[in-house]
UniProtKB/TrEMBL annotation:
One annotated GO molecular function: DNA binding
Alphabetized UniProt keyword annotations: ATP-binding, DNA-binding, Nucleotide-binding, Phosphoprotein, Transcription, Transcription regulation
GO biological process per UniProt: phosphorelay signal transduction system; regulation of DNA-templated transcription
A Pfam family this chain is assigned to: Response_reg
Sites bearing 4-aspartylphosphate, chain numbering: D56
Organism lineage: Bacteria, Pseudomonadati, Pseudomonadota, Gammaproteobacteria, Thiotrichales
Domain of life: Bacteria
UniProt-listed SMART domains: AAA, REC
Keyword Cell membrane: no
Domain Sigma-54 factor interaction residue range list: 138-367
Sequence segments annotated as region (Disordered): 379-399
Protein name: Sigma-54-dependent Fis family transcriptional regulator
Response regulatory domain span: 7-125
Amino acid sequence: MGQKKPLCLLVDDQKDILTLFSLSLASIGIESHLAQSLSEAYIFLERNNYDLCISDLSIRMGGEGREGLDLVEYIKKHFPFMPIIVMTAYGEIPTAVRALQLGAYDFVCKEVMPQQLCDLAQSALKRNLNYQKKLTRLIGESPVIEKLRDDIQRVAHTQAAVFISGESGVGKEVVAQLIHSASNRSEAPFVPLNCGAISGELIESELFGHKKGAFTGAYENKKGLFKEADKGTLFLDEIGDLSYSAQIKLLRAIQERAIRPVGSNKEETVDVRILSASHRNLKALIENNSFRKDLFFRINVIEVRVPPLRERIGDVRLLIDHFLKRLRVKNDQPKLDISEAAIKVLEQYDFPGNVRELENLLEAASVLCRDECIRPDDLRLSPPQERPTPAPNPRLEKNPKKIAPQKINITTNKWNNNSFLEQILTVYASSHLTLPDMMESIYCVLIKMAMEYYANGQRKSADFLELTENSLRYRSKACEEKKLLVGNNVTIANQLRVLFGPFFSPETPTIPIDKIVDELEKRMIKSAIRNHKDDLTKISQQLGISVNSLRYRIERKYKL
Ligand SMILES: Nc1ncnc2c1ncn2[C@@H]1O[C@H](COP(=O)(O)OP(=O)(O)OP(=O)(O)O)[C@@H](O)[C@H]1O
């Protein structure tokens, strides 16, 4: 059927209990993620979409003093559709009752037979038919968002193909998920594909699947996204980026309601609803012959427009509230807050990168701010250029000049702007990383940021960082394998995010990552040479590289 298994978050500090229950749940087709502490549970919740949570209540887990009840409260607030079953020890009924009052689905005594727990899990899932809808929320109360909600409801009940238009970062994928969740296909999968992220040769196999041996590297049969989305919804994001030949194949699949996997001579029928989106103007693409008109009419039976954030500035406050809640958990900053003055600055900003930009700005500011309170300075915003700078309100901000610090423009001031590079170097001042690891960490963080910014669009991310797609792929794989810094040294990664964050905006054409890294490496070597007065052995020890490779850098690469 291609339907995804329900996913459960199991939380308990006893490993054997986790293993026992996860095996039992697996036997009835429920997959589990196991968290052995509450802090781990919060991280899992942030990263995955769960259909159910089963958590021990009876202990303080992780030593951070958070009680199991907090988890119940948190889930109910953030994922109101997710049922929670709590486990208690005998004698802890009052706590269990409190959990029910907070919205838990039911409780069981920890000594239950696994079968009882399975029955309960199944009934919780069954009663909660909304389990596909859980995470997707459209925050906002402005008239344009209310209209968007109406549009979503209206189009959800037809089978027509919907094209979701809107600028980058406005929430087009959120809208696509909501259309799916409100439709009669909501119990089948919602399968998103970022068309810009897949190279021309692979797109056919990605969409339609392939047979083993169909081409070099096709070691297994592959199902393809059309089949995975059978009975459900296929969301083709950035459809304007599809190559012309892929457009022809897609058109055929939509018209015939059938696909043919690469290397197969048999057609297979599929029942898929197509939603698509692009921040590009498809009509303009048709004019210059890079998008097919016939495909346009097929995918654009109904158009839903998602308004830019500047048309719903009244919602900025609600969105801030929403993102801060997430950051409190994600960064483990329970008191994280924002000053009224900073909110005002945001309410007067244009947001060329829309909701995603707001989210990124807050994330960067949450790292920079002192005493867990985001102030205007922490936002590092330039004043809007198109309109007059709003008069500072002395009541809100003691030092109005500080409201909008100048950001360093990577293109006009160039990446070799002294103070910008020095700021990066200070990030590493007290780290014990080797030179290659330091440089690698910059690649890891910037590639991650670019992939987030371009919604996993590999080609766009590579272009933005002035890398080839191959090099981007190779480097991201290395980052994943090593879990280098991005995973392990959160502070360094966060500081880099803060420094580079402002450049992830439409104003910056590219970030020449290779050049930046070379310049930084050169400066580090120079400073080590100064420190150790040309003693190559000491310099190589400080930098964590061999004398030979140091020599190569000094004599050949940088000619120092
Ligand atoms: N109204 C909203 N309420 C809550 N979160 C939102 C809203 N709109 C957008 N977001 C969040 O903003 C980010 C960007 O949204 P999304 O990926 O849906 O935008 P998009 O228009 O598809 O972007 P792109 O054009 O780059 O593909 C996501 O993290 C999403 O959860």
